[in-house]
Structures are given as structure tokens and as C-alpha cells.
Amino acid sequence: MLVLTRRQGEYVLVYPSNIDSTMTVAELFRDGPIEVHVGSINKNQVRLNIKAPGELTILRNELVNEPVKQTATA
């Protein structure tokens, strides 16, 4: 389960990754639907608990276009 805190105007993206092109929607959701629970609300923040198949990627919107950080090598 993934736990994220979001503020008003922020969002998460859910999309397929590492999925075989022959996989059906039924196979992707064989263990059940994606579950999104509101864990808590504190002023202008909401904590989301997300349970989804491992074949799906869930990202905070600010990470989508973040440049890849490279490690300096000696």
C-alpha cells in the first residue's frame, strides 16, 4: 500500500507500466480494483492510502517531468 499526502490542487497519476501487451484488463485487475482510501484530513492536507496492482505506476504530479538525477562517478 502506498501512502501519499496531497494538498488542494495536487494530484496523483496512475498508469500502466511493465505490462505485457497481451495482458487483458481482467488479468490486470485479477486481485481486485484499485482502492483509494482517505486516511486522514488535516487542515489543507489529505492523506491517501492507495492499494493497486504492482503492474501500475503511481506518481505524484510533481515527479512526472522531474529530470533524472545522475550520480557523479569518480
Descriptive account of the structure:
This protein has 74 residues and is mainly β. The chain has a single domain, classed as Sandwich (Immunoglobulin-like). 5% of the residues lie in helices and 42% in strands. The protein has one helix and five strands. A hairpin with a 2-residue loop joins strand 3 and strand 4. It is flat, with a radius of gyration of 16 Å. The model has no long low-confidence stretch (mean pLDDT 82).
Distance between the termini: 37 Å
Percent range for β-strand residues: 35-45%
Helix-and-strand structural type: mainly beta
Strand tally is 5
Q: What spatial form do the alpha-carbon principal axes imply?
A: flat
Count structural domains: 1
CATH class: Mainly Beta
At CATH's second level, what is the architecture?
Sandwich
Helix content: under 10%
Q: Rg from C-alpha positions?
A: 16 Å
Main beta-sheet strand count, sense and barrel state: 3 strands, antiparallel
* N-to-C order of helices and strands: EEHEEE
Individual helix count: 1
Under CATH, the topology can be stated as: Immunoglobulin-like
Corresponding CATH superfamily: Translational regulator CsrA
Strand order of the largest sheet: 1-4-3
Instruction: Write down the overall mean pLDDT.
Output: 82
- Residue stretches low in confidence (pLDDT < 50, at least 5 long) are none
